[in-house]
Amino acid sequence: MSARAAVPWQVWYAALALIWGSSYLLIKLGLGALTGAQVTALRVACGATVLLLLLAVTRTPLPRGLRTWGHLTVTGTLVCSLPWFLFAVGEERVTSAIAGISNATTPVAAVITTALLLPGEPVGRRRLLGVAIGFLGVVLVAQPWSMTHGPDPLGLAIVLAASASYGVGWTYVRRFLHGVDPGGLSMPAAQVLVALAQVPLLLLVDWWRRGRPAAGPFAPGGADGVVHGWDLWGPLLAVLALGVVGTGLAQAMQYAVVRAAGPTVATSVTYPIIVVSVLLGLLVLGESVAPLTLVGAAVALAGSVLITRAGRARSAPLRTPAPARMSR
Q1: Neighbours of 279 (CB within 10 A)
Q2: Helices (H), the chain
Q3: DSSP 8-class letter at 96
């Protein structure tokens, strides 16, 4: 029996909540010396390396076919490179806690996209109610009536778009990649490889956005200028942990949970992720979260739970590449 099979799935579930919940803390630490695009690039490179090594060890093949890889290019963008880039850029303007709270909007985006891409699947009143509740929660977090108490509007919009990208991407998977998964870590690895191929473009776009500094798109420095010593190595180590553990090894843990408890249980890890991200932001980074923001987070989370439970009641588990489903 393998080590993964010998460990109860509840242990892997708790580990995933801690690992993916800490992603926003690690991103914030990485931004101390790197730009958002550089954080994304290092994260993707480390994650891709780990997944390729796991594929080699398990002798798992990558997906085949030009049509499949065409769809993987879309899903790799929507569930990997785009949200990871947007979360890192968004956290340049908002706290890690706010970035974590934004995850509650993923099911909302999934319901809306389902209505567009899967017209044969009924949305239902409970899921529509969940969307409305989730939207109310986002409004309470954003506090658009106040110019001083809410988070930075642009930063919040960016992390909300990142979270929504997951919902759109996995609905696209259900529509166009259903039934083509070779199994194991094949699909997650393929999507991260797509993200790896897009990394140079992200770095160039970011370099152009920052005014084309002479040091080039790869030189670290973040928003505060060139850094040295631990001020550089600390953020680098944080992003290495994000890439190796959160983007690479966590995929194998997620697969263990899916095999033992099913995709429905595995997907519900979204909920503790939000709690962990807020707690780490408060306790480790000393971030402040307004009481109304916490209320909004609870409301948005309630909408997310309602959507997920309504979806379980309406459809059987889908044969989609669940191990990468909640990549954060």
Answers
A1: 15
A2: 3-6, 9-21, 23-30, 36-58, 66-76, 82-90, 96-101, 106-117, 125-142, 153-176, 186-209, 230-241, 250-261, 263-267, 270-283, 291-314
A3: H
Average pLDDT over residues 115-125: 83
- Quick one: tokens of 229? 């010593």
Residue 112 has φ and ψ, to the nearest 5°, of -65, -45
Q: What is the rounded average pLDDT for all residues in the chain?
A: 85
pTM, rounded to two decimals: 0.87
**What is the 8-class DSSP label of residue 91?**
T
Say which residues have a Cβ less than 8 Å from residue 3's Cβ, sequence separation at least 6.
Answer: none
Report whether 260 contacts 9 (CB < 8 A).
yes
In this structure, the dihedral spanned by the alpha carbons of residues 240, 321, 280 and 299, taken in order and rounded to 10 degrees, is 150
pLDDT for 56: 93
Residues in Cβ contact with 208 at an 8 Å cutoff, skipping those fewer than 6 apart: none
Q: What is the identity of the amino acid at 3?
A: A
